[in-house]
Design a protein that fits this description.
Blueprint lengths: L6 H21 L2 H19 L6 E6 L1 H11 L7 H14 L3 E4 L11 H14 L2 E8 L4 H10 L17 E2 L1 E3 L3 H4 L4 E4 L12 E2 L2 E4 L2 E4 L4 H4 L14 E4 L2 E4 L6 E2 L11 E3 H12 L15 E6 L7 E2 L7 E2 H14 L8 H20 L3 H25 L7 H33 L5 H9 L9 E12 L2 H5 L4 H22 L3 E6 L2 E6 L8 H25 L8 E16 L4 E6 L1 H16 L3 E4 H7 L4 E9 L7 E8 L6 H18 L3 H14 L4 H15 L9 E3 L4
Parallel strand pairs: 1-13, 1-14, 2-3, 2-14, 3-6, 4-8, 20-22, 23-25
Antiparallel strand pairs: 3-5, 7-12, 8-9, 10-11, 15-16, 17-19, 17-20, 18-19, 20-21, 22-24, 23-24
Helix pairs in contact: 1-11, 1-13, 4-5, 4-9, 11-12, 11-13, 12-13, 16-17, 20-21, 21-22
Length: 715
């Protein structure tokens, strides 16, 4: 039976997969897995991304700490004079700007003079940016002092101050003397994702109604209050001609400009030594020109100073490298577009679940190939969008939806196939050959309940006089005889001929070829089965006699080839695979016509044409059966090639010659041929019949409109 309403299992499996994965994404680990997949893509891309040529780093690492202690006796924290020397050296080299990622919130332990040296260096450089830390609670007084002292560094907020900018209350600031002379300040606070990884930053912070930039954006947003239109509302931020996409929470997804290890770095201790050499009139080991027009970021990578963060690139990424990445993103447009991620995710989830469920309804090989191709295409498109267009796409959950949809639908289809297999085996194992049964199991859709028209050859057989002699036999003997007869006949039809037994009506058998599995040679197989059943019945006579049958059984068979409607038919309680149509009726009529010609097997002209001369036949008549207007030429099926004896071949030759002359209206010559046929086989009734017809037509010739049709007025 064909799978009805395929949209039902498709929609149910799709909806089930979508629901399970949506719950897993919302409450389970799937979102975390998606971000881990994005992290892997970003790591891979960053490995191929060339370092940003505008950036240069000066690091306070363990090497610097060791050198400071060995050369100058510096213990941590270092005197601020060391940072002043570094700033002076960078000013000599013509650095574009300096991001000094140290907070300096407390007075120097080396006295006020040490603080004054750093303040003077920051002021003289004029391009030094310092960090501050936004506070959700407290530090309001410090914030108010900053707002009053440096209104030039405050950014305009959007109309909704609680929208894209998260509100803070206070600020942890560098010493007042420092922030008053700094070129700008920015917030270095991080907001890690739930798994502890820093993937995004907030470009603008709302601190008590004032806009404070991220530390990495501070050089680009300095004095932005005097530049109306620099900031745009909604999910974008425009800086220096670059439009940066923001998510619904006003954050920007980080895109790292290469990997940390690929960037040129200088030890902070080496820069201190180089400046000291210049001040002493010596040639430094480092040429200050390497910093010309560079954005120099100074920060700590020493583990003891705890400025290492988890990022998609590494579990130990320097915090100042993250800020440098923010600057590169804004300056060069190195960003990922995260705005459509949610919509694309749900669209991909629904699409992949639907496609997977659809493919699961296909044959296993085609479905699996289509699923793999779809998965590869989806993966390639997702990676292409990420690498080329820098659009963030979640891939893992949609790919899981594709696979789960395919598996669920395939499992359902397998279960239905098993049920169909059990049904087919139960319904047809006794009436179909194993080969045909196996083909039917492989293609259960051929058992349609709606019915379909196809060309078949229909077989009807009946035992002559069965009703009369059955009344003379005891029931048990009758049943044994009938069972033996039907068993042998069905074995020929099913096992040898690979036909389908439709039904038994007492001793009558109805069968057909050409369905449920198509067979191009259905007419030949049906005729061959008819001949062999006649032979088998003759061999069966001694056994039937032993069972109590005291007369010879004679079987009449009719076959017709033509279109018929085939399918599962019946009531809701009981269905049978059967056929209906005129083809069935004519085959039944031909079985009965045998008694008028004393023949054993009659076939229609359509069956005769389909045989193509592969079996020995002879024309019997052109008849019009009761209830039909169009005449039908009928033939007797005689034997397989080579089975006729010499006498039979002689008889056959005379008969065929007589029929040819008969239809030419050469009745005298035809009668001679039929007479010779009768001499060869005196028991042949058709030859006797045509000999008499020729005699009559010779004496009373037919008119010009004679068509030779014999009208049968009874069945």
């Amino acid at each position: 039976m064909r799978e009805r309403h395929k949209w039902i299992p498709w929609s149910l499996s799709s909806a089930g997969v979508i629901l399970v994965l949506a719950l897993g994404f919302k409450f389970g680990p799937l979102e975390r897995l998606e971000w881990q997949g994005v992290d892997a893509l970003q790591r891979r891309q960053s490995e191929y991304e060339p370092p940003c040529s505008d950036l240069r780093f000066v690091v306070l690492d363990q090497t610097s700490l060791d050198a400071g202690e060995a050369n100058w006796g510096f213990s941590w924290p270092w005197p601020r004079e060391a940072y002043a020397r570094v700033l002076d050296f960078l000013q000599r080299g013509g650095a574009r700007c300096v991001l000094l990622d140290f907070t300096f919130t407390e007075p120097s332990g080396f006295g006020p003079g040490d603080d004054e040296l750093l303040v003077a260096a920051v002021k003289n450089n004029g391009r030094v940016f310092l960090p501050l830390v936004g506070k959700a609670q407290g530090a309001q007084k410090a914030a108010a002092e900053f707002f009053q002292a440096r209104p030039d560094l405050l950014l305009p907020l959007s109309a909704d101050p609680t929208g894209s900018q998260a509100p803070l209350q206070g600020l942890s600031l560098p010493r007042a003397a420092l922030f008053q002379v700094a070129a700008g300040l920015g917030n270095v606070a991080f907001q890690a994702d739930p798994d502890g990884i820093c993937r995004r930053i907030r470009p603008i912070w709302n601190v008590a109604g004032h806009g404070i930039p991220n530390f990495g954006l501070a050089p680009l947003l300095a004095h932005a209050a005097a530049q109306p239109g620099l900031l745009s509302e909604g999910q974008t931020l425009t800086i220096g001609g670059q439009t940066l996409p923001l998510d619904v929470d006003g954050q920007m997804l980080l895109r790292f400009p290469g990997i940390w290890s690929a960037y040129p770095k200088n030890h902070l201790s080496d820069i201190v030594a180089a400046e000291a050499a210049l001040q002493e009139g010596r040639v430094p080991e480092i040429n200050p020109e390497i910093f010309r027009d560079k954005v120099v970021v100074i920060g700590s990578t020493a583990e003891s100073l705890l400025d290492l963060r988890k990022t998609p690139l590494s579990s130990e990424t320097p915090g100042f490298f993250i800020m440098a990445s923010v600057w590169a993103a804004a300056a060069h447009g190195l960003v990922y577009d995260d705005r459509g991620r949610v919509q694309i995710f749900w669209l991909m989830l629904v699409l992949m679940a639907s496609l997977g469920s659809w493919f699961g309804g296909w044959r296993l090989g085609f479905g699996l190939a289509a699923t793999l191709a779809c998965g590869l295409l989806g993966t390639a498109l997702g990676i292409w969008f990420f690498w080329v267009h820098h659009v963030l796409v979640f891939l893992l959950t949609p790919l899981m939806a594709l696979g789960l949809g395919f598996g669920l639908r395939m499992g359902w289809s397998y279960r239905q196939a098993q049920k169909q297999k059990q049904f087919i085996q139960g319904a047809f194992s006794q009436i179909l050959s194993p080969a045909i049964l196996e083909k039917l199991i492989q293609e259960p859709g051929r058992l349609t309940t709606g019915g379909e028209q196809t060309e078949l050859t229909v077989y009807f057989s009946d035992l002559a006089g069965f009703t009369q002699f059955s009344e003379k036999l005891p029931p048990k003997e009758l049943v044994r005889i009938l069972n033996l007869y039907l068993t042998e006949m069905i074995a020929t039809i099913v096992d040898e001929g690979e036909g389908y037994v439709d039904k038994f009506i007492g001793d009558a058998v109805m069968a057909f070829w050409g369905a449920p599995v198509p067979e191009s040679a259905h007419a030949y197989r049906a005729c061959l089965a008819a001949l062999r059943n006649q032979h088998k019945l003759k061999k069966l006579q001694p056994e039937l006699t032993r069972l109590g049958l005291n007369q010879e059984l004679k079987m009449r068979i009719g076959l017709h080839t033509g279109p018929a409607v085939v399918g599962m038919m019946g009531s809701q309680r009981k269905l049978n695979y059967t056929i209906i149509g005129d083809t069935v009726n004519l085959a039944s009529r031909l079985e009965g016509v045998n008694k008028f010609y004393d023949t054993s097997i009659l076939i229609s002209q359509e069956t005769h044409a389909a045989l193509g001369g592969r079996l020995v036949t002879r024309e019997i008549d052109l008849i019009r059966v009761k209830g039909k207007q169009a005449p039908t030429r009928i033939y007797e099926l005689l034997a397989e090639p080579g089975e006729l004896t010499g006498v039979q071949r002689e008889h056959y030759a005379h008969y065929q010659a007589g029929m040819e002359l008969y239809w030419k209206k050469e009745f005298a010559k035809a009668r001679t041929c039929f007479a010779r046929a009768c001499k060869a086989d005196p028991t042949d009734y058709p030859a006797q019949l045509y000999m008499k017809r020729c005699e009559n037509y010779r004496n009373r010739p037919p008119g010009p409109h004679w068509d030779g049709v014999t009208v049968l007025k009874s069945k």
